[in-house]
Structure formats: C-alpha cells, structure tokens
Amino acid sequence: MVIWLVVTSVLLFIVMFAVSIYAVFLQLMPRVVVPEILSGNWVGYGRLEGTDQLYVVRVSLISGWHNGRVDYPLHDCSGSIVPREMSGGWLVTQEHLDKSSGCSDGTLEFRKGANGQLDLRIMDQVITLQREPDGGSFRLPDSIVGSWTSKSGLEFVLDNNTPGLSGSVRSSSDVCVFAPIHTAEDGATLVAGGSTCDRNGIWTLIARDSKSVSLTIKDVNEKTIRKDTLSR
C-alpha cells in the first residue's frame, strides 16, 4: 500500500508538472502569423497616461510564426511579445517583460500606417513608429557626438555607446537620458526622459559647425518651449 501511494504521488506530480510546462509553452508560443508588411525594427514615443512623462518604445517583428522583441530604453524595460490574434486589421500581441526591472506586462496591437510607418495601439493610445535602420537603432552623426554645454547651463554627453540610447543631459541634480527616434547627416531628434528626469520632451539638435549645435526643445505636447545653442 505504501509503495502504491508513493508511486501514485510521483505519477501525479509528473502529470501536474507536465501540464504546467505545457501551459507555459502555450503562453509563449505564437498563435498567428506575423504579416510581412509589419516585419522590421521600429521606434516611436508616447506619453504615460496622466503624467508629463514620455516613453520610447522599440519593437522588432519578424514575419511568420515568430515572437518579437520590445524595449523601453528610457525606463530599462525589455522582453518578448507573442502574437495572439488578428482583430479588425490589428495584430494583437502579449508582452512578457523582465519582472526584475519592475515593469508590468501589457497588450500591444500593430497595423500598417501611412508613409511606410507602423501604428501601435498601447495603453489606450495610438502612436506612430518609424522604421529603424537595418543595422539596428538610430546612431548619432559624428558632428554632434561629444560633450557640450548650453548657454542656459545644461551639460550634454552625446554618444553611441549604448544601443537605443544617445547619452544624457544634466542640470543640477536633474539627469535625463536620451533615446533617438530619428537621425540625419548633421543632426538628430531625441526623446528625453527617465526616472531622474524633470525635462521630458523632444529635443532636436542640428550641427552648425564643428564647435556649435543648435537646440530646439518641445514639450510633451510637441509645443516649442526653448531654443538654445550648444558649444564644446
């Protein structure tokens, strides 16, 4: 009887363990094919509901039966996205983020937008994603890489050291991290944010010459609030 009870308990444990593994497998397995038209690496930004904080989201989608990747570089969150269904022309995916960073999972929905862009429905808002270069995230041009100081006392460190980020700006105890959403031969558009940032906004920098850069700052509503000049 004792042997029978032990064997039964072991078998029951194995069955329950197998069921649990299978359930996890189903959660992590795509249920629909990612359309070719949505395939690629994309980046964009949005506003956290009820706040003046901006976030940047980077997404990688591969056509076919594949999971994607998602990254929120200003908030140090990343993970996978699992395709679940097509609904009303939207590809519905489920996030599985790294919980050690304090992030919480959500639902991301994608559809093809206008002018080669991608629409992302996230947290009850629709934002526009731009296609990133084939080699990875946007990188700053050499003309604006380096250390700079603005007339108003802001201290900039602009670099390409971390994929998906472009350095930081400091003023007193306020430190903002930059994430690039577009770059050109002589400039870049960056989103400033992060947990220690009180200057959330869209920052556009254009090199004038080897020693100066023009700066335009827009707030979270994309209204121009400051123009400045940076010097080495």
Describe the 3D structure.
The protein has an 8-stranded antiparallel beta barrel. It is built from 1 helix and 16 strands.
* Poorly predicted ranges: 17-26
Estimate what percentage of residues fall within beta strands. over 45%
Count of helical regions: 1
- Mind telling me the C-alpha Rg? 22 Å
Look at the structure and give the mean pLDDT. Answer: 89
Structure classification:
mainly beta
Order of adjacent strands in the largest pleated sheet: 1-2-3-4-5-6-7-8
Secondary-structure element order, N to C = HEEEEEEEEEEEEEEEE
Overall morphology: elongated
Q: Give the helix level as a range of percent.
A: 10-25%
In a few lines, what is going on in this structure?
The chain has 232 residues and is mainly beta.
